[in-house]
Structures are given as C-alpha cells and as structure tokens.
Design the sequence.
C-alpha cells in the first residue's frame, strides 16, 4: 500500500494541503509531498483537480456479505442488567433499522433477571449463556465464549459498554478475531452507501474528536461510553426469542480467579444513577469547603462530585471524580462550582440535561456548555442558592 | 521476577488545536513526553524487582525519537530498554501495535509479568494491554491499583471497577494495566540519569522480530481514522444578569419551571 504524487501532473497548487486531516502535506519546490503518518484515508485525493495523487491500495477482500446483524453485549452484575445494556439497545436498534437487519443481545451470567426486557427494549434475539461460573464477570471465559459465538453467527457490528469490564475483555475478543475495535465511542452512525459504521470518539483527552471506520474486517467492534446514548421506551408487546447457548465448562479453565469484591461505601448516592449532581473544583480552595456543597446537595437530594484537582489533593476520594479519567455522568441537573471546564472534565458531564455553572471568571470554558451561568464568587452564590432552595421546599 | 514494561512517547499536551483554516492538527512546538500512565507502570516494575529480584526491561514501539522515552525509563530504574522501530510500523492501530509488542515479548522470552499503563493520553484507548495479553495467550487483569502478593507463580492484585474493587488471583506470566492509585513514582536519581545517558538501546526492526508486513503498520491495522474535528459545544446557554440575589432567584425559578428541582 503506498501513496504517490505524479510529478508531471502536480503543479504545486496546494489545494490538497487543507484537505489532509492530519496536516501532512507540504509543497516543496512546487511539488506536493506527503509526510510520515499518512493513513491513506484518501481525503486529499479528491481535492486534487489534476489527478496527481495516486493511492495504491492492494485490493483487500471486501468483507463478505455473510456478516449481518447488529449485536449488543448486555452486561450484568449480580444478576441485574446494567443500564448501559438498554442504552446500547436503543442505539443498536437504530443502526439495525438503517441496515435493515436484526438486533441481538448477548448476555453472560447466572439467573439474570428481566431478560425479556432486552426484547422490550429492542432486541430481536437474546443469546444467553447461563452458568454459575458466569455469575462473576469471568473475563477469561467471557472473551473466549463471545469470540466463538461471533465466529458462529457472524454479525457485522458488535457494541459493548465502555465499562471497566467492557474495556478490559472486549479488546481480547477483537484480538482473537483479528478485527478492529474503537474505544469509548460517543457517536455512532451508518454510512448508508457502504454500510460502514462511522465510529466517533474523543482523543487527546477530549480535545479532538476522531471518526474511525473498520473497512475490511468484521465484525466492526466498538465500546461505547455509558450515559451518552439514551435508553429507549420499552414496548411490552415486542416479541423476540431467547436462545440459550451452551458453555463447555470442562473445556476451559480461567487463569484468573475472583477472590472477593469490596464495595466502595464512600458514596452516599451512586453518581452514575443520580438525577442531580453538585460538583466542586479547585475553586473551592480547601477540603473543608466541600461542606458548603454538601449542604446544597442535601437540599437537592443530590450526589457530590468533583473535578480532578480536589481528588489529587485528597479533599475527596477518587470515586467522586468526573471526567476522562473519572466517571461519565448524565444527570438531569449538574451544578459545577469553581470548575473551569477543561476538556477532560467536560468529557464526563457535558451530556447532562441542564448544566449550571458558578464561576468568578466570565471567560471560563465551563460557560460554553452551561445552560445557565452565574458569574460570581461561589462562597456567596452557593449559600444563597442553598437558602433559596430550602425556602422553596418549606 | 523479570518484568517487561510497555511505554509510549506521546505529545506533552492534550491541548492540541485544529487550525480553523486548514482543519488540520497544529503540531508545532508540542514536545514529547513519556505517557504519564506509563510512569506508574515503570515504578511498579522497579518496585517488584526491588522486592523479588530479577530485572526490568522497558520496550517501546515508535519512531527513532522514542528512544528519549526509553532513556527516561532507564533513569527511572529500568535495567534495559529496547526500541521497536521500523518504517513498516507507521500507522499501526492498537491491534497491530499489540502484535509487534507481543513479538518483542516472545523474543525477550524470559518474562514473568508485563505491565502497561491504563491508557495513553493521545490515543486514550487502553486496548493495547489486553490485546497484547491475548496475542501472547496469557492471562490479563486491567486497572490494577495494588499488587497484594506475588508467590509461587501466582499474583494477587486489586482491580478497580465502578462499584469498588475486586481482589483477583492470576497465574504468571501475565499482563496487567495499572492505574495511578498504584504508587507514587520516585524522581529519577542522579545515578539513574547517568546510566540513562550512556545506555545502549538496541533497535529491533520488523525483520529482526520476524513480523510479517501484513500484520503491522497500515496493512495490519483494521481501523482507519477518516476525519478529525473539534468537539462542538452543543449549547451556549445564558449568563444570568443582575445582582447575585436576583441571579440566584432567577436560576431557582428556571430550574423549577424545567422541573429539574
Ligand atoms: C490525561 C489527563 C486526564 C485528566 N482527567 C481529568 C478528569 O477525569 N477529570 C477532571 O476534572 N480533570 C481531568 N484532568 C485535569 C483537567 O485538565 C483540568 O486540570 C481540571 O479539570 C481542572 O479542574 P478545576 O476546574 O477544578 O480547576 P481549575 O482549572 O484550576 O479551575 C478552577 C476554577 O475555579 C474558579 N474559581 C476560583 N475561585 C472561585 C470562587 N471563589 N468562586 C467561583 N469560582 C472560583 C476559577 O475561576 C477557575 O475557573 C485531566 C488531565 C489530563 C492531562
Ligand atoms: N507504541 C507503544 N509502545 C509500547 N507500549 C505501548 C505502545 N502503545 C501503547 N502501549 C502501552 O499500552 C498502554 C495502553 O495504550 P493505548 O491502548 O494506546 O491507550 C500504554 O499505557 C502503554 O503501556
């Protein structure tokens, strides 16, 4: 595979320069040159009016038409399906409709409750491997079983949640199948002409979005950031099939073993499930001042969260951190106090329904995503707000 | 315990800009650093060596200048460093990268543990570690926040998950990825820095590793980046006006109308 520029045709006009998404083209001595790092995406080939850009792509076998169907990995914990499963079904249904194909859910676990709900939320089929050894998320076993199911049924797309489980074992499935995997997607779309899945995800800590495709191998696999897509409305009349698949326990042994699990009790309200979140940043100044936010959170029945600096400084434990290296949340209301709004923080909260920002710097980027902003000292604004809300309650 | 630590050189900032006129990444003046999460991986490798003996080998796949990152690794306590570099590796996605790293580990042969960072700050995928484990056919645990015990070819670790942490036992050799909670990396010592300056860093190429061309670089990479853009901030809401009391009052009214409180 290579790229050539025909020196007879190229006149150094530079039309191609802005067309390269990576800024790799230079015009040297009136001829275009492509720098290192070219992905041969072809964007600038179209921009050249002189047909001087030649990309030689060895014709790779196009993926076979055998691969049909959209699959969703429905994660469970303790026999309960996680909300991410329903979010993926909503998106998966949309993709399957566009492609005119079926939507299947895959669930591994033991005595998992409410499997029909996967159908109510959009699945046509549910592949269920039920075994006591699957009760705990045994990744070593999950990876092999999911890969073999995929080889057997050949779906064209597989979506899994970008949870700690999904981001850990789905790459192994991709490696077994030697196919592409896009991590932590926040937007998914079908290119109807090519049937390709356009997978968009944040990179560089959320400062840049990249759209990625997997052209020649199947399935196209993506992990999807939780709380980005909305769960749909269940239709209890929807019919579908629950298909039990076997799991040959004798054939494999897990090389990792879960000894025990320790729940994190430091959160009063689970952040991911909270309707209202009050979050504080470096602007709080010191640990004690989280008390101010705790009072506001109390009045609102809200969960308490934080940007990274308070976590780094030990004002609040890590499970409260929102952002790229913390949690992603999507509450009805997110109140950001003394948070500047760095891309890494926004990555974890910008899909919230209503965002309120309180910051003394009118130019803080948080105001770019805020529904309502108050420019002012949080030490004045927060107590006022807490008081007003408390009065309103009475 | 022989530990291999996988490190990557990344741009020193994530605040990269897209030139609004040409829609391309502005790269000038961005200096390269060792991926911050890999610093924890290195430190953990060095601590294991200090406790259990053995050696730490840092490996990195990248362009020739990635050698700087490997020297940093030696300054931080790695005994040896190997650069995996070849024009044919350019454009590798996580699958192809993990394939090259796996080949290098196979060539190193006598490893007990491979440590990766939880993710890079440029790619942000966190996929290279688990894909590497699968390529080598050895066990894997992600998001390790503590190594509790290493004994008799087994290792007990804490692994962070959304709801708390799990204690997991794995057989060795294996691969783990570590989070920053695992340790506080030390500063490089003067001795380490001197050693880093004089260290010989061998370069292993595609041929030396015996990797087929169709498994690496663009050919070996199923995924393609077809476009980049600046995230759109979907809303630009309103800044409330008036005295702070008035603003707070208005806010409460609006939130109540929207039935969010
Ligand atoms: C790889 C990587 C991953 C990261 N992951 C995360 C992540 O997951 N989550 C995260 O949050 N960050 C993350 N960061 C850090 C991020 O880049 C920012 O540094 C961080 O979000 C800033 O936090 P902040 O807004 O609290 O602090 P600052 O940026 O310092 O902002 C403090 C704000 O408070 C305001 N303020 C000060 N005093 C007052 C007052 N009295 N009243 C009102 N306002 C006041 C100031 O005007 C300022 O805007 C990451 C960075 C990197 C490189
Ligand atoms: N080119 C590379 N060379 C060596 N190690 C790498 C490379 N890319 C990724 N890694 C390792 O894999 C981890 C996860 O990277 P990523 O999947 O790119 O987020 C990093 O923290 C490194 O430990």
Sequence:
């Amino acid at each position: 595979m290579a790229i050539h520029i025909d020196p007879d045709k190229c006149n150094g006009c530079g039309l191609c320069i802005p067309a390269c998404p990576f800024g790799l083209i230079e015009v040297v001595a009136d001829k275009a040159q492509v720098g290192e790092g070219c992905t041969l995406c072809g964007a600038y080939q179209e921009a050249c009016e002189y047909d001087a850009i030649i990309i030689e792509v060895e014709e790779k076998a196009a993926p076979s038409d055998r691969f049909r169907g959209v699959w969703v990995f429905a994660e469970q914990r303790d026999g309960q399906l996680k909300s991410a499963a329903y979010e993926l079904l909503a998106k998966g249904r949309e993709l399957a409709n566009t492609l005119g194909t079926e939507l299947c859910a895959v669930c591994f676990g033991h005595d998992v409750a409410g499997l029909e709900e996967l159908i109510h939320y959009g699945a046509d089929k549910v592949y269920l491997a039920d075994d006591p050894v699957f009760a705990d998320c045994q990744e070593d076993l999950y990876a092999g079983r999911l890969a073999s199911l995929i080889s057997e049924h050949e779906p064209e797309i597989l979506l899994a949640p970008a949870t700690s489980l999904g981001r850990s074992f789905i790459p192994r499935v991709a490696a077994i199948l030697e196919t592409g995997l896009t991590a932590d997607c926040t937007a998914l779309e079908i290119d109807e002409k090519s049937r390709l899945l356009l997978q968009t995800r944040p990179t560089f800590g959320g400062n840049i979005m990249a759209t990625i495709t997997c052209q020649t191998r199947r399935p196209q696999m993506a992990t999807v950031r939780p709380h980005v897509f909305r769960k749909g409305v269940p239709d209890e009349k929807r019919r579908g099939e629950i298909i039990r698949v076997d799991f040959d326990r004798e054939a494999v042994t897990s090389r990792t073993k879960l000894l025990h699990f320790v729940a994190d009790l430091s959160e009063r309200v689970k952040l991911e499930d909270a309707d209202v979140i009050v979050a504080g940043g470096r602007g709080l100044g010191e640990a004690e001042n989280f008390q101010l936010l705790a009072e506001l959170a109390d009045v609102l029945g809200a969960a308490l969260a934080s940007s990274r600096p308070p976590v780094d400084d030990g004002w609040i434990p890590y499970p409260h951190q929102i952002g790229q290296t913390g949690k992603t949340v999507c509450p009805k209301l997110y109140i950001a106090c003394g948070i500047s709004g760095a891309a890494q923080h926004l990555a974890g909260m910008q899909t919230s329904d209503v965002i309120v920002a309180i910051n003394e710097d009118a130019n803080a980027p948080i105001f770019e995503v805020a529904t309502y902003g108050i420019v002012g000292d949080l030490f004045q604004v927060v107590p006022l707000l807490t008081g007003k809300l408390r009065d309103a309650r009475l | 315990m022989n530990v291999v630590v996988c490190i990557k050189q990344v741009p020193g900032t994530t605040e990269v800009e897209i030139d609004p006129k040409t829609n391309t990444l502005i790269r000038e003046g961005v200096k390269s650093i060792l991926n911050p999460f890999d610093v924890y991986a290195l430190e953990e490798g060095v601590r294991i060596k200090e406790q259990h003996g053995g050696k730490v080998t840092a490996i990195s796949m990248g362009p020739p200048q990635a050698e700087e990152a490997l020297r940093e690794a030696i300054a931080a306590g790695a005994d040896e460093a190997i650069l995996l570099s070849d024009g044919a590796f350019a454009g590798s996605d996580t699958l192809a990268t993990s394939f090259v790293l796996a080949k290098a580990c196979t060539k190193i042969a006598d490893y007990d543990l491979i440590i990766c960072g939880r993710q890079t700050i440029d790619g942000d995928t966190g996929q290279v570690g688990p894909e590497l484990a699968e390529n080598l056919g050895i066990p894997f645990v992600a998001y390790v926040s503590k190594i509790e015990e290493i004994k008799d070819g087994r290792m007990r670790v804490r692994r962070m998950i959304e709801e708390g942490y799990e204690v997991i036992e794995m057989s060795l050799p294996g691969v783990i990825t570590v989070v920053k909670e695992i340790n506080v990396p030390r500063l490089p010592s003067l001795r380490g820095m001197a050693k880093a300056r004089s260290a010989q860093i061998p370069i292993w190429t595609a041929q030396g590793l015996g990797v087929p061309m169709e498994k690496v670089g663009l050919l070996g990479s199923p995924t393609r980046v077809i476009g980049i853009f600046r995230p759109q901030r979907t809303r630009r809401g309103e800044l409330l006006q008036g005295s702070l009391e008035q603003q707070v009052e208005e806010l409460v009214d609006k939130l109540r109308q929207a039935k969010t409180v």
Summary: The pocket of flavin-adenine dinucleotide (ligand 1) is lined by residues A 205, 281-283, 307-309, 321-326, 338-340, 342, 344-345, 348, 358-361, 364, 377-379; B 14, 121 (CB under 6 Å). The radius of gyration of chain A is 25 Å.
